[in-house]
Specification:
Beta-Lactamase; globular; 3 domains; five-stranded antiparallel beta sheet; 14 helices; alpha+beta
Length: 372
């Protein structure tokens, strides 16, 4: 079991550094995980870190009707093992049969979605994947017969951080295709096998000038950029299980997150180094524009979508519970809903579900427009 866990982690570390796009990463992650945990179908979702609402999906043996039924359960019904709850949990992986103490009929998701689709003798394992403090994706694994065990959950727990990093990288690779003139847009440097620069986006050139690095004036690139590129090469060669990611102080305050992946194409050991200005996730511009939310209402909405209670909201925002209620009333009036559940459902089904069903990818048509 220990050997299998080590081999599984090595496979995912290699996968993270392959520079795959989002659908490619989900496909490869699904196939790799299937070699470690037995399941009959799966549903992978990328998440908007600001709202925890799904932005794209990859499914195996699950139809679109099944997907929307799972979404309706997630946002409209009380149930166990919700993805937003797992994102806040110390252990972001849970098994349905364990959460219901073996009485799966206690779960509306089981009785109304899973059982009618042929899983009446089976089980579900769910996980939310974080990179840093932000949730970037999640997965639901299903068995038609038999229960998931604690050892299955432990495998996913061990891999969760690695998978979260892979999803984040795949999403940012898509986001960088947007207008590079946007403020705080991630920058990309392409390096040849000898570490010479093949190309560099304007944003990357700008961010290099804001890095604290003692070698910045003595070479074309700061040594730290070369270092993270070499970490990616070692990881892909199976020589290291270390993730090719580094945090670098920013001269103007805050941090940069550097991460590197090998790139397909001509020439061995070509590496892409992404320079990402770290900042707080924000509600997407499409929601702000649609409802005219103020800055404070935007923040309250974000925290509601993350599942915080009124007391937790008050503590987070350093205001009274009465002030939180006033903000909620204003938000409900602007959005045209009467409760938190209706708020979450409205934002998902009106702004995220159509793009999810149509296959829109993060980074297109407004996804993560105000940061990530």
């Amino acid at each position: 079991m220990v050997k299998l866990a080590i081999e599984g982690r090595q496979r995912f570390v290699h996968l993270v550094h392959r520079g795959l796009n989002l659908s490619g990463f989900f496909d490869a992650a699904d196939r790799t995980l299937a070699g470690l945990v037995q399941f009959d179908s799966s549903c992978w979702l990328s998440l908007d870190p600001a709202t925890l609402l799904p932005t794209s999906h990859f499914t195996r043996e699950i139809g679109s009707d099944h997907l929307m039924e799972l979404a309706a359960n997630e946002f409209l019904e009380d149930d166990v093992n919700k993805f937003a709850g797992l994102a806040r949990a110390a252990r972001p992986v849970a098994i349905l049969s364990k959460a219901t103490r073996g009485e799966l009929q206690r779960s509306p998701r089981f009785t109304r979605v899973l059982a009618p689709h042929g899983y009446e003798d089976g089980d579900e394992l769910r996980a939310t994947f974080l990179a840093g403090e932000s949730a970037w994706g999640c997965v639901a694994l299903h068995r038609r017969r038999g229960r998931f065990e604690d050892r299955d959950a432990e495998v996913v727990v061990d891999l969760a951080g690695c998978i979260g990093e892979g999803i984040r990288r795949a999403i940012l690779s898509t986001v960088r295709a947007a207008d590079d003139g946007e403020l705080d847009q991630p920058g990309l440097i392409l390096l040849r096998g000898d570490d010479s620069v093949e190309s560099m986006t304007p944003a990357a050139n700008r961010w290099i000038g804001e890095m604290f690095d003692s070698t910045a004036d003595s070479s074309t690139l700061p040594l730290i950029v070369i270092s993270v590129a070499n970490k990616a090469r070692r990881a892909c060669a199976g020589l290291s299980e270390e993730m090719a990611s580094l945090r670098v102080p920013r001269v103007t305050g805050g941090w940069f997150l550097l991460h590197a992946s090998l790139l397909p194409g001509d020439g061995p050991d070509r590496v892409g180094v992404m320079i990402d200005p770290v900042r707080e996730p924000q509600i997407a511009a499409l929601i702000v524009d649609a409802y005219g939310l103020s800055q404070r209402e935007r923040e309250v909405t974000r925290l509601v979508l993350h599942g915080l209670s009124t007391r937790d909201l008050a503590d987070e925002l350093h205001v009274s519970a009465y002030t939180v209620q006033d903000h909620l009333k204003s938000i409900f009036a602007k959005v045209g809903v009467r409760s938190r559940r209706e708020l979450v459902a409205q934002l998902f089904f009106h702004h995220y579900a159509p793009r999810l069903e149509n296959g829109a990818t993060p980074g297109s048509n407004g996804w993560f427009a105000d940061g990530h």
